[in-house]
Structures are given as C-alpha cells and as structure tokens.
Specification:
The protein contains three helices and eight strands; from the N terminus they run ββαββαβββαβ. With 158 residues, the chain is of the alpha+beta class. The protein starts with a strand and ends in a 6-residue tail after the last strand. Bound molecules: iron/sulfur cluster (SF4) (2 copies). One iron/sulfur cluster (SF4) binds next to α3.
C-alpha cells in the first residue's frame, strides 16, 4: 500500500530509506502517518506492520521525498514519542544466479564475500554478513537479495 503526497520532484537532495517505527500504547492510535504526509509532503509505503491493541506496535515503512522534509517528518515522529530506527535487513545470495564475477568483493566492508583460492568461486559467508546491502546495489544479475525483516538495526541510525 503506497501513501502518496503530490509533490513536484525538484533538483534537491532526496531521501529514501526503510525505517522501523515503534509505537507505545499511548501513541499507537494517533494518526501520525497522515500528518507526516500532509505536513511534510513525503511518501511512504508500508513494508510490514505488527500491532497488538494496548501494547507496543511496530510499523516498517519505506519513506521517501526531499531529504530535509523527510528528516523533519522523522523529527516530528520522535516528538510524538515514537522510536525511529533503521529497519533490519537480511541479505542472502541466489547461488544459482551468481556468476562469480567478483564485483561485490571490494564493496563488502566485513569480508563476508571472498574468493576461494583454488576454484576462484566467490564464497558468501552469511555468518559474517552485517546486511549493509552494499553488494545488492552493485551485483549485475541481482544475486544478492535484501529482505526487510521486523526489527531495527543495532545502531538504529536513519
Ligand atoms: S550485505 Fe554488506 S556485509 Fe553482507 S555480503 Fe553484502 S556487502 Fe557484505
Ligand atoms: S556481484 Fe553478484 S554475480 Fe558477481 S560475484 Fe557478487 S553476487 Fe555473484
């Protein structure tokens, strides 16, 4: 479901991130996302939602628009008592799709992608992967796949 605010895309810095919002019982029934769209001219798409009446609720959304407006919208959400954090991802590899070109190796900050000496095949060590998503942006055949999962990253920085 995409919530869209009509806006003319200008040649200004843009923002596009998947974030997790954690609501408390006190703020879970406030129409904050409607306000975010109206006041800050941003667009969001709901990726996942988990709510229980009278308890904490979680909403994972992809948020995009002008950088300054998105950041102002996130500040507004924080002012409402909502915890705003980067959403957690899980990265996996489609082994049958990978053609072992090695383009992803240089980007991986934690050496989760390495070349096996003898075979020259690219090995993906899922245990080491921090799901930063860098490799998913460069892989020419889409072998590295990022899925958003419920939860927030350790740093939470958005
Ligand atoms: S998601 Fe990040 S840490 Fe994981 S393999 Fe890709 S580049 Fe390395
Ligand atoms: S960039 Fe993609 S195809 Fe190339 S080695 Fe990495 S995962 Fe495989």
């Amino acid at each position: 479901m995409t919530q869209h605010a009509d806006s003319t895309e200008k040649d200004v810095r843009q923002y596009r991130k998947i974030i997790q919002l954690t609501f408390t019982p006190e703020n879970s029934n406030k129409p904050v996302m409607c306000h975010v769209v109206r006041r800050y001219d941003v667009t969001y798409n709901i990726v996942a939602a988990q709510t229980t009446a009278g308890k904490e609720g979680y909403l994972t959304v992809e948020l995009w628009g002008e950088d300054a407006k998105c950041r102002a919208a996130l500040d507004y959400l924080r002012e409402q008592g909502i915890i705003v954090a980067a959403a957690k991802q899980h990265v996996s590899r489609l082994d049958d799709t990978c053609m072992h070109c090695g383009m992803c190796l240089a980007l991986c900050p934690v050496d989760a992608l390495t070349i096996e000496g003898g075979s020259r095949l690219v090995i993906f060590n899922e245990e080491e992967c921090t799901a930063c998503g860098m490799c998913t942006r460069i892989c020419p055949v889409g072998a590295m796949q990022a899925d958003t999962v419920m939860g927030r990253t350790a740093s939470g920085v958005v």
